[in-house]
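TL;DR need structure tokens for one chain.
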Amino acid sequence: QVQLAESGGGLVQPGGSLRLSCVASGFTFSSYAMSWYRQAPGKEREWVEVIGYTGASIRYLDSVKGRFTISRDNTKNTMYLQMNSLKVDDTAVYYCKGPGDSWGQGTQVTVSS
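>> reply
TL;DR here they are.
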């Protein structure tokens, strides 16, 4: 079955950087678009960025433009989210989404001084 495992979250100061990873298994990773979502406390889950199966970013949330970069390595069945210039408002649980309704367990990102 589809399995997605995020890692790389943590506590960082405003302006700092983190790189999230999502390791996928149970499907042909290179054939599917993948997404990052996030859910802040008390808010609905929102999509952050989507990457096509070839590695091109399809769309992204305006608030992360120029700060977040999505990428993937199809040889490693892994998707990444490089997050730079982090802001307090980026604090959330970040989720990896695969085909259908498949989700990872999430990784907490906390931006705080």
